[in-house]
Write a structure and sequence with these properties.
alpha+beta, two-stranded antiparallel ribbon, 3 helices, 39% helix, elongated, binds zinc ion
Length: 152
C-alpha cells in the first residue's frame, strides 16, 4: 500500500516590509520621498509619495513627480519653488540610483507583480519640453527688452 504525500500548503504571503519596495516587493529598496507642486495663480498644492522604493519604482516615481512639477508648476506663485522642488527631488534620487537592480522577494505579496517601468527619460516628457519652451521665450523677451532699452 502506498500513500501519497500530503500536499504542501503554499507559503503564507506577507506585505512588503522595511527594505522592500512598497509597490512591487522587490529588494533592495531605499526609503525616499518625491514631491510635485501644482501652482494656480495665488495657490499651490504639494503632493508627495513617500516610502520604500526599489531602483525601478523609485526612478518611475521621480520622473512622474518631476514631470508633474514641470507641467503644473508654472501657472502661479509656485513658479518660485520649481527650482527647489527639482533640486530636492534630484538629490533624493541619488539614493535610488545607488541601489542594485531589483530582485523579487519570495513570500511577499505586493500590489504590483513586477517593478514599475521607469518610462521615458525626463527630457522626453511633456513637462521638460514645455519648460524648455517657456524658459526660452522668457529669455528672449527679457533679452529683447534689454536690447530695446539699451538702444534708446
Ligand atoms: Zn519596486
Amino acid at each position: 500500500m502506498t500513500t501519497t504525500p500530503a500536499p504542501v500548503p503554499p507559503p503564507a504571503l506577507r506585505p512588503p516590509a522595511d527594505g522592500e519596495c512598497q509597490f512591487c516587493g522587490s529588494h533592495p529598496a531605499a526609503h525616499v520621498s518625491f514631491q510635485s507642486m501644482t501652482s494656480i495663480v495665488i495657490l499651490y498644492v504639494v503632493s508627495s509619495q513617500r516610502g520604500w522604493m526599489c531602483r525601478n519604482c523609485g526612478l518611475a516615481m521621480f520622473r512622474h513627480y518631476t514631470n508633474k512639477t514641470l507641467l503644473a508648476g508654472w501657472w502661479g506663485v509656485g513658479v518660485i519653488g520649481i527650482p527647489i522642488f527639482l533640486g530636492v527631488d534630484r538629490f533624493r534620487l541619488r539614493r535610488i540610483l545607488r541601489l542594485a537592480p531589483p530582485q523579487p522577494t519570495p513570500g511577499v505579496a505586493a500590489s504590483l507583480p513586477a517593478p514599475l517601468d521607469p518610462g521615458k527619460p525626463l527630457i522626453q516628457r511633456p513637462g521638460a519640453i514645455l519648460s524648455i519652451v517657456l524658459v526660452t521665450v522668457l529669455v528672449l523677451v527679457i533679452g529683447c527688452g534689454a536690447l530695446a532699452f539699451a538702444t534708446t
